[in-house]
């Protein structure tokens, strides 16, 4: 014998269900911004330390797309990010000049270093002239692992090879190895070969798989590594979340944000040095 509810009973049940649904609290729309940034800010652990502080204060989630600087700029140029946070000032200034960004703000700096095998086949350990070191590496045809990904680090490396008068394109695939990947994987490659590599100090300090690698060259003023932050142009891309994106930028360059950057350390060593307004 099957049970068939009466029409009045069915109507009453549907009404009760509808009322219960309507009485549920309305969920607020998820609030987030997208930041196109570099692998160094991600792989160094800075964002993992910094972003929860901003989200806790504002309720705005920050979703990071961590790629090389060149790719991050392309993402922002397509309107697929609200904020650009990278480390190649000439490219950042060009981004603004072409109308993709509103204004560039300096945020922080650290430095690049050259790491290499403990055997140091190019005999450059302890040097402070990075261009001379690059000439020595090329002269010995010692293995060198390059990111080869148009990142800020790669752009800095290419400028140093140019200053050294070395055509690394001609050496590609021999002693000069291009990984086409981020800083962490490139350091893994360098440790595995072993090979020399140019890296930002922040990623190096957070890198655990060092193997035979050690710092061989540091302290040259040409190894200065400056980071900037920019709002992607709402005039060009009306969907940019201008208010929340600007809130993030304002926080990063505020005394609170700058102190948070200065407070990020690994084994007691500071990775980034805030310099907005200096």
State the gist of this model.
This protein is of the alpha/beta class.
How would you sum up this structure, described in words?
This protein is an alpha/beta fold and 278 residues long. The chain is built from 12 helices and 12 strands. It has helices at residues 7-22, 39-43, 46-58, 69-77, 89-97, 130-140, 152-164, 168-171, 183-192, 201-206, 242-252, 255-263, and strands spanning 32-38, 61-67, 83-86, 101-117, 144-146, 176-178, 197-200, 213-217, 224-232, 265-266, 269-270, 273-274. The strands form 3 sheets. Strands 1, 2, 3, 4, 7, 8, 9 and 12 form an 8-stranded mixed β-sheet that branches. Strands 5-6 form a two-stranded parallel sheet. Strands 10-11 form a two-stranded antiparallel ribbon. The longest helix has 16 residues, at 7-22.
Structural class, from helix and strand content? Answer: alpha/beta
Sequence of secondary-structure elements? HEHHEHEHEHEHHEHEHEEHHEEE
Average pLDDT, to the nearest integer?
A: 91
Query: What profile does the largest beta sheet have?
Result: 8 strands, mixed
DSSP summary: helix tally = 12
What fraction, in percent, of the residue positions are helical? 40-55%
Q: C-alpha Rg, in Å?
A: 25 Å
Q: State the total count of DSSP E strands.
A: 12
Distance between the termini: 85 Å
Shape estimate: globular
Q: Uncertain runs with pLDDT below 50, 5 residues or more?
A: 1-28
Strand content: 15-25%
Keywords:
278 residues; alpha/beta; eight-stranded mixed sheet; two-stranded parallel sheet; 12 helices; 12 strands; 42% helix; globular; disordered N terminus
């Amino acid at each position: 014998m099957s049970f068939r509810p009466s029409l009045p009973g069915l109507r009453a049940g549907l009404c009760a269900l509808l009322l219960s649904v309507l009485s549920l609290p309305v969920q607020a729309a998820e609030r987030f911004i997208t930041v196109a940034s570099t692998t160094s800010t991600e792989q160094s652990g800075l964002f993992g330390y910094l972003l929860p502080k901003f989200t806790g204060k504002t309720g705005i989630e920050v979703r990071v797309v961590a790629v090389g600087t060149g790719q991050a700029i392309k993402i922002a140029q397509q309107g697929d990010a609200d904020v650009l946070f990278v480390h190649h000032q000439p490219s950042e200034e060009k981004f603004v000049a072409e109308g993709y960004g509103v204004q560039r703000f300096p945020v922080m700096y650290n430095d690049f270093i050259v790491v290499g095998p403990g055997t140091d086949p190019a005999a450059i350990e302890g040097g402070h002239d990075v261009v001379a070191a690059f000439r020595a590496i090329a002269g010995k045809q010692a293995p060198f692992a390059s990111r080869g990904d148009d990142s800020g680090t790669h752009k800095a490396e290419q400028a140093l090879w140019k200053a050294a008068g070395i055509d690394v394109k001609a050496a590609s695939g021999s002693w000069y190895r291009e990984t086409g990947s981020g800083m962490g994987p490139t350091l893994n490659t360098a440790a595995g070969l072993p090979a020399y590599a140019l890296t930002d100090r922040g990623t190096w300090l957070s890198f655990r798989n060092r193997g035979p690698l050690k710092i061989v060259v540091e302290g040259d003023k040409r190894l200065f590594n400056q980071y900037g932050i920019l709002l992607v142009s709402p005039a060009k891309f009306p969907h940019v979340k201008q208010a929340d994106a600007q809130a993030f930028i304002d926080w990063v360059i505020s005394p609170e944000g700058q102190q948070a950057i200065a407070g990020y350390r690994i084994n007691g060593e500071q990775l980034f040095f805030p310099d907005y307004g200096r």
